[in-house]
Amino acid sequence: MKTRIKWVLLFLISGCLISGCSSNTKYEKRLKHELASGVRNDSLFMGLYFGMPEKDFYTQCWKLNKKGLIRQGDSNTTVLYEMKDELQYPANMEFYPKFKKGLISEMPVEFVYKGWAPWNKKLSSDKLELDVLKWYEKVYGNGFIEVKHPKHGTAYVKIDGNRRITIFKQDELHVWAYFTDLLVKKDWIDSSTNTGNTPVDTTKDLNK
């Protein structure tokens, strides 16, 4: 009887250790491997990329705005792209980069399903997060792993060389995809829903 209890306890402890550590250990191994590869993946989306000068960012946004592809966000501090076909339902995608020494180093991207309401579960962030993940797998390839994020709970992460993409939920409505240049910043502090760009007015650059 004692032997049986001992084996059961050993099995439970082993299971807890594996389930609690495996995903984040896999992430650490992936991070180390990709940084050691020396590969650079600076591409983001819509012609934007890591290391892009701030002036060039505004020029590119102006060009996209002239084509009717983007416009200023409702708060005038972000760029808004209205998604029609990329996800299962129409959604808004808003973004504005963080600059390090005048160059793009991070890109927080916010997603919201249009027509969301607390009772409309098909447009909740639970569904939106999985839809964004599925779309990103098509655009950036498979290889996203599920991890326990220190600030946002469960998140999905993909690392390609210096480029890390982190997808996570903020609340019942908002989902974020956060692009980080790991050659600039390697920790999790970057993955915040507060982009720190609220004083910036993009209106002047998009409506020229």
Oligomer classification: single chain
Specify the helix fraction band.
25-40%
| Terminal Cα span | 80 Å
Q: Could you say how many structural domains there are in total?
A: 1
**In angstroms, what is the radius of gyration?**
20 Å
Extract low-pLDDT stretches.
5-20, 191-208
Main beta-sheet annotation: 9 strands, antiparallel
SSE order, one letter for each helix or strand: HHEEEEEHEEEEH
Number of DSSP helical runs: 4
How many strands appear in the DSSP assignment? 9
User: What fraction strand?
Assistant: 25-35%
Q: Determine the mean pLDDT.
A: 83
Q: How does the overall form come out from the CA principal axes?
A: globular
Structural class estimated from helices and strands: alpha+beta
Question: Could you please describe the fold and organization of this structure?
Answer:
With 208 residues, this protein is α+β, with helices and mostly antiparallel strands. The chain has one domain (22-206). The protein contains four helices and nine strands, in the order ααβββββαββββα. Strands 1, 2, 3, 4, 5, 6, 7, 8 and 9 form a nine-stranded antiparallel β-sheet that branches. The longest helix is centred in the N-terminal third of the chain and has 36 residues, at 2-37. It starts with a helix and ends with a helix.
